[in-house]
Amino acid sequence: MLEYLFILLRYGRALVGRQCGTVYITLNQAVDGLCRDLMLMTAAQLLGYRVLVHIHGGCYDGVLKSAPPFVRHLAVKALSACDAVILLSDRLRFMFDAWPEIQPRLRVVPNGLPFEPTGCPTAPKEIRPGEPVRLLYLSNMIASKGWQVVLESVDRLVRHHGIDVRARFCGGFMASPEDRQFASPAAANAWFDAYIVDHGLEGHVRYDSHVGGEEKIRALQEAHLLLLPSSYPNEGQPLTLIEGLAYGCVLVGTPYRAIPDMARDGETGLLLPPDAAMIADGIQKLVRDPERFRNMSASSLALFRKEFRSEIHVANILRLLERPVKN
Prior knowledge:
The structure is a single chain. This protein has helices at residues 2-18, 31-46, 60-66, 69-80, 147-159, 185-198, 213-222, 239-246, 259-262, 276-287, 290-308, 310-322; strands spanning 22-26, 50-54, 84-87, 106-108, 133-138, 165-170, 205-208, 225-228, 250-253, 269-271. It has 327 residues and is α/β, with parallel strands linked by helices. The strands form 2 sheets. A 6-stranded parallel beta sheet has the order 7-6-5-8-9-10, with helices on both faces. 37% of the residues are buried.
C-alpha cells in the first residue's frame, strides 16, 4: 500500500509539474482497479491533459456493472471525456453498448507480436506422410482457456482417428474464480497427469509449466497447429494466437471475443465450439488434406505480416498519442 501511495504521489507531482500534455493509462479490469483508474483519469482531466485509456481484455462492461452505482456514474463520465478509449478489436465494442456516451471515443488498435520475432518461417508449414502432427497449447492452464478440451481432443485423435499426435502444453496451472471443477491448481495438475496415464497418452503429450525465449520460439516453430478453445471471461485478443500466426501455425479457436480476428475460419484456422469431438474431427479432416493445411499456414503468415507485426501496433498507438482524436 505504501509503494502504491508513493506511485500516486509521483503521478500527481508529474501532472502538476508539466501542466499540459497527454496521459496514457492501461485500465485495470477489476472494481478496485476501476477506482484507481478513476482517480488517475479525473486528476489529469481536471488539469487539462488529454487522456487516452487502453483496455486489453474483453469484460470491461462487467467491471462497470459490478461497481457501485456512484462509482460507475463517475467512471462513465470520465471515460466519455477521454480523447480515446482504445480497444483491441471491433468485436469488443459491445462492452459499451449500455453507455452510448462513450462510444464516440472508441478507437481500435489490434495487438502486435509481443516480442522481437526470430526464426519466423518464410514458407508455409507442411504435414508430411509418416511424421507426427504437432499440436501446441500455449497459455495459462485455466479450465476456461480450454486445456481440458485440447487434452481430450488429443485422446480422440489418437484413439478414434488413428492419427499420430505430439501435443505440447505450455503454461502454469492457475486458479480462476469462474473455474469451479478443481479445488486448486494442484488438483487440476493431478487430473491432467492422471488423464494422460489412464488414456495411455504418455508418448503423445508433453507438459512444460513455463517456456520462454528460445524454447518458446522452438515450440512455435515445431507446431503445426496452435489450439486455444477459450471461453475465458476476461478474454480479449489473445497474444498467443498472434504468436501462432507469426510462425505459420494453423489456429484452432472458438468464435469468442476477438479470437476470430486471428483464427479466421477456413482461412487461417478452424473456429469450433469448445467440444473435444468436434475439434478432433475438424483437425483430422485438415491433416488428411495436406494441401489445404499448407494453404492455411501460408494465410497465417500473410495475415500476421499484414495486420499484427509489432511495428504496425506501435505506429497505430503513436498515431493516437501524437494528435488529438476527440470528436
